[in-house]
Amino acid sequence: MLFQIKLKSFSLRFLVFFLTIVFCLPAFFPLYAQTAEVIAPAQTVEVSVALQTAETAVQEAPAAVQTAEIAVKEAPSAAQTSEAKIEISGQIKAEAPAAVPEAPAAPAQKPMKVSASKRSVYITPGQTFDLSAITLSAKSAEGKDEPVKIESWSADTGSVNLNVYTPPSASFAGTVTLLANYNDAGETKSFEIEMKVRTVYISERIIVLVIALILGLIIVISINSTLSGKSYFIRKIGGLNAIDEAIGRSTEMGKPVLYLTGLSDVSSIATIASISILSYVARKTAEYETSLLVPCCRSLVMNTAREVVKESYLEAGKPDAYNAENIKYITDDQFGFVSGVDGIMLREKPAANFYLGHFMAESLIYAETGNSIGAIQIAGTSEFSQIPFFVAACDYCLIGEELFAASAYLSRKPKDVGTLRGQDIAKLVIMAIVIIGVVLETVAAVNPGLSSSLGMYKSLFQTK
Question: Looking at 88-97, 158-167, 267-276, which range is the least confident one?
């Protein structure tokens, strides 16, 4: 009994040992060698072996695998079962195919910059226009103008495939947008052409031309009359008569004269009128040998003022008394300029201040500062909103068009006086036209039978 138990125990141990050897033996052999059991009577067997090294082939692209040579051993006899060891006599090579370079992407085609031989066309109402006279062109890569084929024409009125443009009606007058359709890289695009249908002149405005010609003729006749020696009366303007008095007072006190041309540049009519008055003031200060200070808000005004003052001193026979440093540029900034001028007033303490030109919100600041130093002040501006401040704070003020009449009033030159007289006659004509219209309107309201006469009178002066 004990013997049987030991025998079974021994058998179990042997069986466990044998199985352990069978399962663990392959672990001690290299990975590149494997065994295959061949059971065949004297036969050569072809065996395919998959190696782990082949799994490390290039993964990013399909690999071309070359099969190595394999040596196969035959069984010794037909009745014998044996193991054949298969060895690899070569190396497995994995080669990735040569990468095919990708073709570079074609550069994006830039849209053509198209220009037209005529961007705007003018025709009279009822006239037709041949659209073949308009051509399109575009710049090539070499910078040359190449023609662009116009596929079709269309208009913003909805018409298509136009060859000749005709206005909608014989009386049509206005602007129509025509579209020249062309092909750009397979895409249909349009180029706009303005077709302006209008008359050579607007008949409703002929009266404006007639009145302008009449007024111009009056001015020319007045100038010729003045040049022939005829003198005309110009009413007295208090502020202009006080110029000599103000300059004489400065001379007596031994103080300078301050002159401001305003904020605007030389393109302003008010500044031009002020420069004309400056010429007269400079000539008087040269005669009285009084210093003249002219701060400027614009550089061009400064250069103009220097030339005018220099010429005036030369006419007065005192060229050596001219000092360009007294005519200086301060700043273009409105209130920065005000601060600079007020500083000059408080330092130099001029006895006479002239504010003639275009002034804005700073007008009262000048007037109050000049009043604080006891200067006599003469002002004039074309800005009607600032006239009340000058009237309240200055000794003399030029109101409205008196500023523009000052040059003729002071110089008495025939051309200036003739122009002034012609303008006054033109004002009288306009006033007469307005009065006649008011009278006819009143009479027509009382007597409706005269409405036709009123309508005829109105039609003479109606414009569009």
Answer: 88-97
The answer to whether the Cα torsion of 297, 303, 308, 313 is positive or negative is: positive
| Cβ(271)–Cβ(265) below 8 Å | yes
pLDDT tier at 100, thresholds 50, 70, 90: low
Ranges of each domain in the chain: 114-197, 238-412
Residue with tokens 């190595």: 68
DSSP codes of every residue in 63-105: -EEEPPPEE-PPPSSTT--EEEEEEE-S--EEEPPPPPPPPPP
> How far lies 41's CA from each of 47, 79, 83, 198, in Å?
16, 6, 13, 115
Q: How many CB atoms lie within 10 A of CB 251?
A: 19
In this prediction the pTM is: 0.56
CATH number for region 114-197: 2.60.40
Number of H helices, E strands in the chain: 11, 20
Contact 440, 457 (CB under 8 A): yes
Q: Does domain 238-412 have CATH number 1.10.1760?
A: no
